Amino acid sequence: MTSVTCSASFPASSPAADLASSPAEGFADVLVGLQYGDEGKAKIIDALAAGYDVIARFNGGANAGHTIDTPLGRIALKQLPSGVFHPHATLYIGSGCALNPWKLADEIEQLRAMGISLDGRLHISARAALVQPHHIALDRRGGGTIGTTGNGIGPCYADRALRVRNDARVNWMLGDLLGREADTVASMREVFTRMINAEGGTSPWIAEMSDLLLSLPKVADTLRAYLEPDRGWLADRVKQGARVLFEGAQSVLLDVVDGSQPYVTSSHTVPAYAYVGGDLSPKYHRRTIGVAKAVMSRVGRGPFPSELGGERSAQYCDDASLSHVGMTEEQARFSPDQLLRSDDPFDVGTALRMLTGEYGTGTGRPRRIGMLDLAQLREVVKAHAVDCVYLNKVDCLAHYFHSTYQGVPMRVHREVMSGDVMPDVLIYPGLTERSLALGGEGTLDAAMHGFVDFVERQIGAPLAGLGLGPERASLVSLAAHPLAPAAAASNHV
Ligand code: IMP
Q1: Catalytic residue positions?
Q2: Of all protein residues, whose CA lies closest to atom 2 belonging to ligand 1?
Q3: Residue 474 φ then ψ, to 5°
Q4: Comparing C-alpha atoms, which of 226, 167, 214 is closest to residue 189?
Q5: Which residues are involved in binding Mg(2+) (predicted)?
């Protein structure tokens, strides 16, 4: 049996990789999800945070989300970067983000109530776009076709590109709200009023949106301390030696251009965009870190080649989210152990969702479930030159041993004639339930090492770590790999 270093915390500084900048300057790494979101990026950032000075968001807004259990209690973060619980880390929200000021102020207040102040630690670009009441109303009314999260993100980015509608400015930014508060609030109110008048005054959200507008001045007061008017703020930090970790929201396959239109989010999720939405020159880029999960999921509609149960699963999850069927309802209706033994992949997918807790963090929607798609990962790794990959939820593969698969099914690529590749499904041979359980003790047996080698050859990138359980300590670092950072102490609260 070979042992590996097992630590919940790795510094990012690797002697080999600082190619782009002078020794006195810092660098930036970009961490992105490689699938359809919800790969457990926050958990990896939590483990890596000790090695970075700044953790920065560059895209998306309150459509992202992760729940963090801390010694001080549980908190759901949507817009603040994941490094919030690492007191040494400065946090930056870049101009590429769509900011929901109400929800952000609420996150800040929740933290304050837990005794965590972000004063002096949080900087928000003055050019971050503001989500406005009419964006939320439009998304709730029209986002169903795509299955959006209803946070107004799409309409917000659309208005940023539109700039002016009916002679009225519609792209308001945080700097506007804090610098020209009365004008900004009046404009938002006017656009929303026009919208509801055009609808004959029947919008079900009139009262809620009016309350949002009324509370905006108070919210602005909360956010004022964090406004960063200097567009060169992050660049200056890096010039002075700061090490930056960009945290991607959503994931590469949901990119507005690169993903499968129209079933995508409305921002750029690919790693290159970190340097546009994160307000830094790409000259400082050092490494691209990918995060994937072994039991895959997707929320909302759109292609999902390895989905267990295919179209039936997609339809079921769509109907379930419309009728507000979530974890509680599924638990009342189904026995996951029984479903797992069914020879219908749809049932196996339902069982895996229940057994591995795959429900939307913000929405509670049941997520569509799929087998690990290595063929797809290979394409993503290649397209974005991903340097190393963390694979989460590997322990969850153990459930397959209680299914009719009797092993781990995965979508792989196979070389056929003249080097062409074709996707194919195989039951991975050699892995046992016992091998997966051993990882939880910080050791991997030969079978697990064989699995790691197989995955690496398939995807064309080294695995830097395996998530073998929900706890921080169950993240196993594959330290033998040149790109995997070594273990270090954590500064976590
Ligand atoms: P929007 O980002 O709310 O406009 O939603 C567009 C699509 O992206 C929908 O299919 C959403 O379910 C999906 N999406 C948005 N944010 C996330 C996320 O954080 N995780 C997974 N899917 C997401």
Answers
A1: 38, 66
A2: 265
A3: -90, 15
A4: 214
A5: 38, 65
Helix axes 153-162, 133-142, angle to 10 degrees: 120
When pLDDT is cut at 50, 70 and 90, the band that residue 171 belongs to is very high
pLDDT digits (tens, 9 = 90+) for 23-43: 699 999 999 999 999 999 999
How far is the C-alpha of 171 from the C-alpha of 167, rounded, in Å? 12
> To which residue do tokens 């749809």 refer?
346
Measured CA to CA, the distance from residue 3 to residue 439 in angstroms comes to: 9
Is 66 among the annotated ligand-binding positions?
Answer: yes
Q: Please check whether residue 180 is in contact with residue 171, taking contact to mean a CB–CB distance below 8 angstroms.
A: no
The CB density around residue 100, as the number of other CB atoms within 10 Å, is 26
Residue 335 CB neighbours (<10 A): 11
Torsion of CA 192, 198, 203, 206, to 10 degrees: 30
Asked if residue 332 has pLDDT above 90, the reply is yes
Specify the CATH number for 129-225; select among 3.40.720, 3.40.50, 1.10.300, 1.20.1050.
Answer: 1.10.300
Are 20 and 225 in contact by the 8 Å Cβ rule? The answer is: no
Q: Given ligand 1 and candidates 261, 265, 322, which is best to mutate, with the most ligand atoms within 8 Å of its CB?
A: 265
| Structure tokens belonging to residue 185 | 């609030």
Whether 484 is in the pocket of ligand 1, judged by its Cβ within 6 Å, is no
Distances (CA, A) of 170 to 123, 126, 134, 159: 24, 16, 10, 6
CA-nearest residue for atom 19, ligand 1, is 64
Name the region of 257 (left: φ>0; alpha: ψ -120 to 50; beta: rest): alpha
The SS3 assignment for 40 reads coil
How far away, in angstroms, is 357 Cα from ligand 1 center? 18
Q: Bin 302: left if φ > 0, else alpha if -120 < ψ < 50, else beta.
A: left
Burial class (CB in 10 A: 0-12, 13-18, 19+), 158: middle
Give strand pairing partners of 421. 415
Q: Is 154 in the pocket of ligand 1 (CB under 6 A)?
A: yes
User: Which residues does 471 contact at the CB level (< 8 Å), separation at least 6?
Assistant: none
Which pLDDT belongs to residue 154? 97
Predicted confidence (pLDDT) at residue 276 exceeds the cutoff of 80: yes
Q: What is the pTM of this model?
A: 0.91
Q: What is the pLDDT of residues 179-193, one digit of tens each?
A: 999 999 999 999 999
| Rounded CA separation 453/176 (Å) | 52
Helices then strands (H, E): number in the chain? 16, 23
User: Can you name the residues that pair with 74 across neighbouring β-strands?
Assistant: 69
Per-domain residue ranges for the chain? Answer: 129-225, 307-370
